[in-house]
Amino acid sequence: MEKEIASLEKYRTWEAIAPPENARFVNTKWVLRKKRDEHGNLVKFKARLTARASGFTQIPGIDYDETFAAVV
Predict the structure, then answer these.
(1) What's this model's pTM, rounded to 2 decimal places?
(2) For every residue of 16-68, which 3-state class applies, written as one string?
(3) How far apart are CA 52 and CA 30, in angstroms?
(4) What percent of the chain has pLDDT over 70?
């Protein structure tokens, strides 16, 4: 998890700002995985901090109007 946070800070993927009044916050969730090689041997642990957006804490039409997914 520390490596993931360091990566987020290194690439400046977010910035802390003061929230607007009556703002709804998007919850986050850690997704943890075990990465294995082709023989099934444990190679490393991976962690990703993900947003638990619509359907959890936000209301369509009030908190957001559009949704999208970044695609390479």
Answers:
(1) 0.55
(2) CCCCCCCCCCCEEEEEEEEEECCCCCEEEEEEEEEEECCCCCCCECCCECCCC
(3) 10
(4) 85
Least confidently predicted of 19-23, 37-41, 56-60: 56-60
pLDDT recorded at residue 52: 76
Structure tokens at 47: 């962690």
Burial of 53 (0-12, 13-18, 19+ CB in 10 A): middle
Name the nearest CA neighbour of 1 among 45, 59, 65, 39: 45
Distance CA 64, CA 58 (A): 8
In the DSSP assignment, the letter for residue 6 is: H
